[in-house]
Amino acid sequence: MPELPEVEALARFLDERTTGRAVAGVAVGAVSALKTFSPAPSDLVGRPVVGVARHGKWLDLATDGPHLLAHLSRAGWVRWYDAVPSTPVRPGRSPIALRVSFDDGSGFDLTEAGTRKRLAVHLVEDPDDVPLVADLGVDPLSDAFTADHLAGLAAARSQQVKGLLRDQRAIAGIGNAYSDEILHAARMSPFALTSKLSREDVDLLHRVTREVLTEALAAAAGRPAAELKDAKRRGMQVHGRTGEACPVCGDTVREVSFADRSLQYCATCQTGGKPLADRRLSRLLR
């Protein structure tokens, strides 16, 4: 799933290439991806793009009228064209969910692989018209994300720290991959309870969160959209590296599997050498 660094890089990539261009056409390839009916996709045609921004893990292509907001979910991506193919988009016949073309002949597709279609596109007058955007928590790269703010979030709830990092209503933009990376860098168990974190723990978690995301964004910045996925994979220390050696201590990276996802961690670095039970409802070691 694209997370804050990749979505921010995509937003910057699109902003550089589309701002000032007028939308020449919008073709819907997957009706299920379109979550709104008014404004209609045709209402974007002829509108100049005034900028592309990010809200958490949402892309926001803003025209001088409607905004096109897209959440790429697990398997969505952006495919850029300097020259849009002449072949028309055929609904249901390809991974293309939406194609947007511009007056200079360029454009992009929003694509989604696999059979579980979760990519979401909203056309709205204001980003806050999408409840999931309006309810987003603090952006972890913003000035509002202070150690005090994080301490308040941790104290206000008793949950596993990985869950707090992934909660979009608390902290916007971090998902499964970067929460693994942050907790590994902080040498913290993913199942540590937020209510039991000391102030020193919170300060460390705040600092490491900013560092991991800033470094990932720097690695992604300026790359073509087609290269961002591979750049993300190469930068991971533990996420997606089950069975490999931890680059810090050399221990084997372990995994905890759930029904629809998994997490990776290093027992030596994060849990005092104790493996975590690999069952959602098991008694978890901390």
Automatic annotation (TrEMBL):
<dbReference type="InterPro" id="IPR010663">
    <property type="entry name" value="Znf_FPG/IleRS"/>
</dbReference>
<keyword id="KW-0863">Zinc-finger</keyword>
<protein>
    <submittedName>
        <fullName>DNA lyase</fullName>
    </submittedName>
</protein>
<keyword id="KW-0238">DNA-binding</keyword>
<keyword id="KW-0378">Hydrolase</keyword>
<dbReference type="GO" id="GO:0034039">
    <property type="term" value="F:8-oxo-7,8-dihydroguanine DNA N-glycosylase activity"/>
</dbReference>
<feature type="domain" description="FPG-type">
    <location>
        <begin position="237"/>
        <end position="271"/>
    </location>
</feature>
<keyword id="KW-0234">DNA repair</keyword>
<keyword id="KW-0862">Zinc</keyword>
<keyword id="KW-0227">DNA damage</keyword>
<keyword id="KW-0456">Lyase</keyword>
<dbReference type="GO" id="GO:0008270">
    <property type="term" value="F:zinc ion binding"/>
</dbReference>
<dbReference type="InterPro" id="IPR015887">
    <property type="entry name" value="DNA_glyclase_Znf_dom_DNA_BS"/>
</dbReference>
<dbReference type="InterPro" id="IPR035937">
    <property type="entry name" value="FPG_N"/>
</dbReference>
<dbReference type="GO" id="GO:0140078">
    <property type="term" value="F:class I DNA-(apurinic or apyrimidinic site) endonuclease activity"/>
</dbReference>
<keyword id="KW-0511">Multifunctional enzyme</keyword>
<dbReference type="Pfam" id="PF01149">
    <property type="entry name" value="Fapy_DNA_glyco"/>
</dbReference>
<dbReference type="InterPro" id="IPR015886">
    <property type="entry name" value="H2TH_FPG"/>
</dbReference>
<keyword id="KW-0479">Metal-binding</keyword>
<dbReference type="GO" id="GO:0003684">
    <property type="term" value="F:damaged DNA binding"/>
</dbReference>
<dbReference type="GO" id="GO:0006284">
    <property type="term" value="P:base-excision repair"/>
</dbReference>
<dbReference type="InterPro" id="IPR010979">
    <property type="entry name" value="Ribosomal_uS13-like_H2TH"/>
</dbReference>
<feature type="domain" description="Formamidopyrimidine-DNA glycosylase catalytic">
    <location>
        <begin position="2"/>
        <end position="119"/>
    </location>
</feature>
<dbReference type="InterPro" id="IPR000214">
    <property type="entry name" value="Znf_DNA_glyclase/AP_lyase"/>
</dbReference>
<keyword id="KW-0326">Glycosidase</keyword>
<dbReference type="Pfam" id="PF06827">
    <property type="entry name" value="zf-FPG_IleRS"/>
</dbReference>
<comment type="similarity">
    <text>Belongs to the FPG family.</text>
</comment>
<dbReference type="Pfam" id="PF06831">
    <property type="entry name" value="H2TH"/>
</dbReference>
<dbReference type="InterPro" id="IPR012319">
    <property type="entry name" value="FPG_cat"/>
</dbReference>
